[in-house]
Write a structure and sequence with these properties.
4-stranded antiparallel β-sheet, mainly beta, about 5% helix
């Protein structure tokens, strides 16, 4: 399975993080009643801008399989904490809920 993590500005659609083009490591783990997404990345202008818009983020995880359609997971950050720890070079995003779906199952 191949995964792609994308963090975007919900209103403008600007992409802040894209795991296919950015060199980074990430984890998505259950955290209480939600999920914690941790991203190891040096602080940059994109991270600074992301932090300015931390209450307007969309987080997506695309899971691509050889034998089935791609699954898309959309995490709802809402008012969940978003922060950056300088000494760890780590961004943490807490999502309160998520929706899993297969885009191929929707007719356009």
């Amino acid at each position: 399975m191949k995964e792609v993590l994308i963090v975007k500005h919900a209103v403008g659609g600007r992409t802040f993080i894209h795991s296919e083009t950015d060199s980074l490591r990430y984890d998505v783990l259950p955290d209480g009643e939600g999920w914690r997404i941790t991203i190891s990345t040096p602080k940059s202008a994109a991270i600074e801008e992301l932090l300015k818009w931390k209450h307007e983020l969309n987080v997506f995880l695309f899971q691509e399989f050889d034998d089935q359609p791609t699954r898309k997971i959309w995490f709802y950050v809402k008012e969940g904490p978003v922060g950056y720890e300088d000494h760890l070079e780590q961004l943490t995003i807490k999502a309160r809920s998520r929706i899993d779906y297969v885009p191929d199952e929707f007719d356009m």
